[in-house]
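seq:
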Amino acid sequence: MAEKGATKNSKIRHGFETLLLVVFFLYVIVQALFNENEDLVIIPNAVMLLFFVLSVMHLFMGAKFEFGPHIIFTGLFLVICVLSSIWAIRPDMSSVQCSTLFKLWLMLIFVFNVLYQTKKLDLFPIALLVSSLVMCVYLLLVYGPSEYITMLSEGDRLGGEVANENSIGLMASNACLICFYYGMLLNKRRFYLLLPLPLLTVAASGSRKALVMVIFSFIMMYLLKPREKGNKRAFIRGILGAIIAVSVFFLVLQLPMFDLVKERMESFFNIFGDSSQVDNSTMLRLKMIEAGWEVFLQNPFTGVGIGNSYIFVFEYTGQYYYTHNNYIELLSSVGLFGTLFYYASYIYLLVKLLKRVKKREPLVLLSLCMIVMTLVEDFALVSYYSKSTFLELAFYFLVVRALYANDAEAERAAYDAEHPLVSPFIKRSEATFAAPVPIKSQLKNLGGFDPEALFGNAPFFINEALSSDDSSGPRLEFEPPQMSVEMINALVNEFVPPENADGERPAPEDTAPDGSAEEEGKDLDGK
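struct:
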């Protein structure tokens, strides 16, 4: 009966976790579609609220709460933002921004916990790809195929009726990135068939940032692609493949539909040459960045309060808008320390991921590419309060946590293989234990061996798994480490009699201190 009950509970929990993953997947899609639509933004907000409620229920059902750097780094930045509202000129604006950041912080925590507990790291890249493709299809349906093609051919920017054109372009560039990831790193070339639609959307959006990100992501993925060392043919094929791919890519850019984005790119690069040919959009952005930098120089350590940069940008430019640069926006709003607290997450992640880059693990390479792209994008947009930013941060922390957890599992398996006499004590138990099992009791059950005199009261315990579906497994714990594993092995080999041909362990021939044999049937305690 107990086994049936456990099986039933396991099925219920598995079904509940599947529902959680479906809601998460749905949220990634609807926030891509409706997050910037004032009339429909209630849809992603409602789905996220449902995800919060289900995540809390998941914890009450016995799921572990994972505490780690993902909470600490982002939480410290949130604290700095809250404190900045004290000296802000408009505390009400700071309060609104802090409320948004708190919700995003909770979202990061719950997304991390759900995906880590269910071990569904690969779900995020697929969700990101599907949401971007759905956005591209939605854009095509909103305008209609004929108008879509007409506006492309005439060089008009598409997307304003759905969301900001730059946001749409960046989502489409994310789809290109994921296609490159599956095609180059995982050798699933069928994903290349999905590229035309997001590339068209990048062209339709007229977003310079999106076009740069497409080119940048292709180059990074190609450079990070695993290759056979010393294989000259593979190297030559790689060089030829890169030349062909780049040639095809630039031929595609010559199509009329890309004329608008190319013109905007040329206008942007004119700031380094003929400034008279720079477009108004670029000039305005430069003025906003200059305004934010001046505000930072006047308030280098505290900033003017989170969400208050708008006020000073308006004084400098006459436009009530943010600075269009995440670094300048944070420096002007929360000062140098607040900016460092925000980017501490990225520094931590880069350090952890770069340590493993030689192993060419696909998720590590994808995370590195996405982080570098984010850091580059932050020069041209403000992302610190974006939902997609916090979703991506949850994914990066997940990759780091999961990979290092896998290393710990591998070390434990290697230990079991190297210590066959000790490993039976630390193998997974199918039963549920309310407390750790003393190793002295385990050793005593081997037959006639009482380790009390040798171990004394040294607190060595076998920490059994809480349940049969606990992925962490049992562990050998030393509290405190008064005796090494080597000493335990030596004691076991010396005092535990070997198995006979029938696989049984006979009781040892006990000897009294004076050298005479003790009475038959007595153990070392004389019982």
